[in-house]
From TrEMBL:
Localization: Membrane
Keyword Transmembrane: yes
Signal peptide: 1-21
Family: Belongs to the polycystin family.
Protein name: Uncharacterized protein
């Protein structure tokens, strides 16, 4: 048990050291800085195409280039830096749009006399990939001589090394009609003004995406910026942003880098050792191994750790290739870090799940302790009741969720989708919901539905849940009270350390060791019960013997009385 505890706690410590190394203390300040530079309040006030062009010319482009110094001198040796003169852009930024094909939407037959055209919502199947002339005119000519421009010819996701991106409305392709943001600030503003006059964004545009990546040499952090403005065809624009800060190379300090590499190597070695141990257990126990909950948790930890190591290696190698390409071309090509952002986010999710399961696994290591094992015992005892309770809870909870969805999906953002309705319903359970907005949207049904949800879910179902747990705790406590105490492993391990170091021979060490010995209270209770049972059996036997003796004496007395009565009768009647 001690060896198992040592092995797993060492692995758990290495896991925490390696996973927390993914998080950089300056990641959030860098993300907040970039959000303030490019996604200020003016960005979220974009409601029209004119607002989008104004934001590009007044906020985006000035933020991509450093300003002149206080003495009007040119920013020499700062080519490629952002406005803050600290973050270096990798390559250049691009602005691409995604469009829908003409004819992908059919007007309702009864509205055809009034409306002749409509444009479909965006999907990966309905997007437009055809080349056009400037101003979205018909394409004329060939690839060498034509009336088109690069912003009016489709660039595939393969050429951009792009992957689909999720917005608030739908998924968007990694390709598009691309405009390169390159040159001086005045040149970029002039080119965007020309695109505005050529109606580059029109009624068939469904999304405009701005993306670029930066590198901060002071913190050795990369930032992948994705700015999206969706145009769902309803007349409004929906802006959103995503800034992923990633520590792709680790610390540049040689001492810190050596420590990180050492920790990762030790983690991999311990991971291999535990994998070998679990494989041996699988061969020994076969299908029985997969029937135990803690074995499944252990298997999930090992699988997730292996996938995390592979993902980390892929991210580092991909980042090195991207940086080498940037250095080779001296920043004259677009470098797409979008895939790296997704892999880095996936690695973060895997690390979080592994740390959760590993922390949960610690409970199984200390399940020898009566107090700690109480949780598992309660859950096992309450499993059958909980199973039926969650069926009833799910049915009633989803009934209210669907009612919220049908009632508020077109009026409140918190109830726009079924998933958001589930989240909002849990917020109501926690007392975090805003009843005022629900009341304003539905004056009659809103308060009634809120009151019904509060009564049936919070007062009834939650009370049932607590009652089931309380009943299970009481039963488990009654059962565990009859069990004898055992050595608690931390005390036992500490006592062994005292004995190994011969500190137990000292006065205070001897008192500690003696104080850690178990008190045989359970045995005393058990022996007392046995003696009491024995005494009761003896008393019962003696009582039965006494009753038998008394019955015998009474019978003898009755016989004697009968004989005396007969003699008396004979004496009084001599003629008989």
């Amino acid at each position: 048990m001690l060896w198992k505890l040592f092995l797993y706690m060492t692995f758990f410590s290495l896991l925490l050291a390696v996973t927390t190394g993914f998080r950089h203390p300056y990641a959030y300040p860098l993300k907040e800085h970039l959000e303030g530079t490019f996604c200020s309040d003016s960005f979220f006030r974009i409601h029209k195409v004119e607002d989008l062009y104004a934001w590009v010319k007044a906020t985006l482009i000035p933020g991509l280039r450093p300003k002149r110094w206080y003495n009007k001198a040119a920013p020499v040796f700062q080519r490629g830096f952002l406005q803050d003169r600290t973050n270096r852009i990798i390559g250049y930024a691009i602005m691409r749009q995604l469009r829908v094909r003409s004819g992908a939407c059919n007007v309702y037959s009864k509205m055809e006399p009034v409306l002749r055209h409509c444009y479909a919502s965006y999907s990966l199947l309905s997007q437009d990939e055809e080349p056009y002339g400037i101003g979205w005119t018909s394409f004329q000519g060939d690839t060498s001589q034509n009336n088109s421009g690069p912003e009016f010819r489709y660039t595939s996701a393969h050429d951009l090394d792009g992957i689909p991106y999720r917005g608030k409305i739908t998924w968007y392709s990694g390709g598009g009609y691309v405009h390169i943001l390159r040159g001086t600030e005045s040149e970029m503003i002039q080119r965007v003004t020309e695109l505005e006059s050529q109606h580059w964004i029109d009624e068939r545009t469904r999304a405009v995406i701005v993306q670029f990546a930066t590198y901060n040499p002071s913190t050795n952090l990369f930032a992948i910026v994705m700015i999206l403005v969706e145009m769902p065809g309803t007349g409004n624009l929906i802006p959103s942003k995503r800034i992923e800060v990633a520590d792709l190379f680790g610390s540049v300090n040689s001492q810190t880098l050596a420590q990180n590499i050492t920790l990762k190597v030790l983690f991999v070695l311990f991971l291999i050792a535990i994998i070998i141990k679990e494989v041996r257990h699988i061969f020994q126990q076969r299908l029985t191994y997969f029937r135990k909950f803690w074995n499944l948790v252990e298997l999930s930890i090992l699988t997730g750790s292996t996938c995390g190591v592979a993902a980390q290696i892929y991210v580092i190698l991909s980042a090195q290739r991207a940086v080498e390409e940037f250095s080779r071309t001296q920043g004259k090509v677009f470098t797409n870090f979008m895939a790296l952002a997704y892999w880095n986010e996936t690695l973060t999710y895997v690390a979080a799940i592994i740390c959760f399961l590993a922390s949960l696994k610690v409970l199984s290591i200390f399940q020898y302790n009566q107090r700690i094992s109480l949780l598992g015992s309660v859950l096992r005892y309450a499993f059958q009741d909980m199973k039926y309770f969650f069926v009833a809870f799910s049915l009633m909870f989803m009934g209210f969720v669907l009612t919220f969805y049908f009632l508020y999906n077109d009026s409140l953002e918190d109830f726009r989708t079924v998933i958001s309705c589930i989240e909002s319903a849990f917020q109501i359970m926690l007392g975090k919901a805003d009843m005022t907005r629900m009341y304003k949207m539905e004056v009659i049904l809103g308060p009634l539905l809120f009151a019904a949800f509060t009564f049936f879910v919070i007062f009834v179902l939650v009370s049932m849940f607590i009652a089931i747990l309380e009943d299970s705790i009481q039963h488990v406590k009654k059962d565990s009270a009859l069990q004898s105490d055992v050595y608690e492993l931390p005390k036992y391990a500490f006592a062994l350390i005292l004995q190994w170091t011969r500190l137990s021979q000292t006065k205070w060490g001897n008192s500690l060791v003696n104080g850690m010995r178990p008190k045989p209270r359970g045995r005393i209770i058990e022996e007392s019960e046995q003696r009491l049972t024995c005494k009761l059996n003896q008393f019962t036997t003696m009582t039965e013997e006494l009753l038998w003796y008394l019955q015998s004496m009474i019978a003898i007395d009755l016989v004697k009385v009968g004989e005396s009565v007969n003699e008396t009768v004979d004496n009084t009647n001599p003629n008989v």
